[in-house]
Amino acid sequence: MTKKRKKYSAEYRAKVALDAVREQETVAAIARKYKVHANLVYKWKRQLLENLPKVFDAEAGSSGDAAEREADLLKKIGELTVERDFLSQGLGPFR
């Protein structure tokens, strides 16, 4: 009989990792407190510290991504408008 792995939510992992970053308790104490293995605490802490700079990069980069997406959508709207006009001219006498 196999055991299924537990899946922890992102909020839960963030809470554990923040507690580990504060270093007010040992990793073993944090692991006992949240009922997870100490290796997970180390892993989540490392992931938090590695990805923390990306949070601030996302603020600056999000406007560029939005502008690019908007340009793509406007291009698609133009293509669909031309296609609709072309098809409506071809179906003119049958309407």
Describe the structure.
With 95 residues, this protein is mainly alpha-helical. It has one domain (10-94). It has 3 helices and no strands. It has helices at 10-22, 27-34, 38-90. It is elongated and about 80 Å long.
Keywords:
single chain, 95 residues, mainly alpha, 78% helix
In short, what is this structure?
The chain has 95 residues and is mainly α.
Cα-to-Cα separation, first versus last residue: 67 Å
Biggest sheet descriptor: none
Structural class: mainly alpha
Spell out the helices and strands N to C.
HHH
Overall shape: it is elongated
Q: Please, how many helices? A: 3
Strand element count = 0
Strand-residue proportion = under 5%
| Tally of domains | 1
Low-confidence stretches: none
Helix content: over 70%
Secondary structure topology:
Elements: H1 10-22, H2 27-34, H3 38-90
Helix pairs in contact: 1-3, 2-3
